[in-house]
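Input record (one chain):
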Amino acid sequence: VLSTIVHGDSRAAVLGNPNHPCIGASGGNRNGDSWISQSIRVPNTSAPQLTVWYRIFTWDRNANNNDDVDRFEIWINNQELFQTANITGNYGCAFPVNDLGWRDFVYDLSAYRGQQITLKLTNVVWPDEAYNTWTFVDDIIIIP
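The corresponding structure, as predicted from the sequence alone:
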């Protein structure tokens, strides 16, 4: 948990290692996946909604929006709901790290009304070990 980059409060969780340097295509950058999870009972209301604010920093690029590069994922009950990455920006150690800015993910939880769910947020650093990626998450809210 850090207070240097936040969305709305005084602290945000960071997934990954922002202090790890860009190594480049020669590899050696495998930080592994970082994740946080929590079990939550979804309110039994007409339209419960999940909101997650996230901010990705990366030297990698996912030009094809697939699973073979660094990315941020959101899961409920071991089912992936969402993944995103640096789709268009420059990549590699010759460039400054890409700051993708604060973005929000909003999801209708009506299918889970009254149920206990496990929410998992994951920063994936792909095994190619080429470039570093980390993600800040903040303001994780369930609106009844």
